[in-house]
Queue: 2 jobs
Job 1
Amino acid sequence: MKRIHYTAPYVLAPTHRLTVNLAGTGGTGSRVLTALGCIDRSLHALGHPGLHVTAFDPDIVTEANIGRQLFSPSDMGLNKASVLVTRINRFLSLDWEAVPELFPDCADPANITVSCVDSARARIDIAGKLSSVPGGVDHRKPLYWLDFGNTVNAGQVVLGTLTDIEQPPANEYETVSSLKTVAELFDLASVDEKASGPSCSLAEALQRQDLFINSSLAQLGCNLLWKLISTGCIDMQGLYLNLETMRVNPIKL
């Protein structure tokens, strides 16, 4: 029998805009923020209140970011989150917020947390924060965690639930109320990561990550989020992407 997850009712018909915390606005996060703007605009067209996004990132724009991330030479020396949120607010007439600090040290709870961080340690920290957040109501109730992660030319997207989502009766499907988060699917503590500081040039950055791995992953992952909100159900909770083999494999429920 096909397994399916029905979206949390509040996500489909919220009394306020859905709140989204975006952790990281670099290679993947800068593109995810742009995709969230597209999702917000499209949701409004469907009669949905849309999204309110708060983006967190303590980093500033450097020369190595220009070309691989969504920054221009005039952005150099400015905070990444502030640059991107200011830009999208002007472009789409939004009032989203930027916090030039590390998530989750100063984050209020949100309906959806999106993480675009570059280490297992950062994901462990986010998992600890989300597990200790009180239930809350409406626009401050934590419901989903969408994580993006990648290596040089491969990556994955994982959508997990932060609480059991009540499922309606469905004789034709096996409903799934709880989706494992990235911290539950993988043993993050055992990941052997090499310490890596910021790249000094675009050429050096491209040795660490393929030019289009971030943008490809962002589009695919945000499509999953779009389906969760716009269709009311999903039959997968993520995907694996490999640009070397040009393959995308779903993570089925």
Note: The first strand starts at residue 3 and ends at 6.
Job 2
Amino acid sequence: MNISQLLEFDRMAREDGQKYDKRREIYDDIARDAGAHFIGIIGPRGVGKTVILKQLALANERSFYVSLDAMEGDLFDLVKTLHETMQIGLFLLDEVHVYHRFEADLKKIYDLFDIRVIFTSSTALGMHESSYDLSRRVLLKTLYPFSLREYARFKYAQEFGALTLMDIVEKKLPQDVFRAGEHFSSYIQGGLMPFALQEPQPLMILENILKTIIRKDIPHIAKLLTDELEKIEQLIRFIGLSGVDGINYSSAARNVHITKYKAEQYITLLERAFVLHRIFPIGSNVMKEPKVVMALPYRLLYKPLNEAIGGLREDFFVGALRALGKEVFYLKSMRGQKTPDYFVRDLQDIIFEVGGKGKGRSQFKGMDVKIKIIFADGYDMTDIHRPLFLAGLLNG
């Protein structure tokens, strides 16, 4: 453990933190949290978790930033030494999932020292399935990619008020909200990733991120053979090249030539690594096998925009609602009948159809839920139609 080298990394982190004058909405929530628990920030690679830690380091004099993928030695010993010799009271630990004993060391640190820890991880799997009891010691917060509202603020310095689902349903919208629609195309093509603010070709970066997730992150949290990682790559490619309908454990197993059990395992890992979303069907008389969509904008690694747009719309909708913590279910077609896409639990239950122009009330035939909305491209606000981009302005 080279303390002098780690101190230099900490100094460089603070210096780097000065470059970022704008803060994500989650920053104030973390900075104000005065609870006794540690805070874990989980989220996709490239979403800005490290930037938040560097901003916190800059704002807290008696803090210490360390990236665990660059640290050699024992984490507990490092914290003990710096706390006792330098009175460090806040430790900012980046990418803890690469450190194999992080659960045990966090537990010891919490129990023995009067300090605070804020850490990040690019995978939720190790956090949620830890064999150590961190439940009363750690509060997890998920950092998602930019909402369309955040993207407009960071990229174009445009401020849009937050909407609720019922604001959209009841058309309680400020006039300037429609200006956000002009940014929607660039947003779904990669603009939602914060690194796209500086990178003109974000999909190239995203491709490298995906390789890192498969070859580095997943092996840290699951005991898999090398050829299984290749199967995971094939699985993602199959999903990316396919349409949205009919993608589930069974279809993945058939097309990648793996067992249904393995398909479920790999898809679960990829969801915990923020690459895929599983949406389970609602109702008791359907097989409990989820529909699988991708996190934005991974689908564009496999198809051009004009071929991927249908899937991207659903990827966007599911991601936006999941970021709000909403329960999203899909409506399973029975005996070839067409049903709307999604059922969302809110203050009132809502059924959504997500798609292009030209869909109408016939999509909801036989549905007895009171609120029915068609989210589609464009700016149509007539009848039950609403612009799809409005889902990117939701907050609550």
Note: The mean pLDDT is 89.
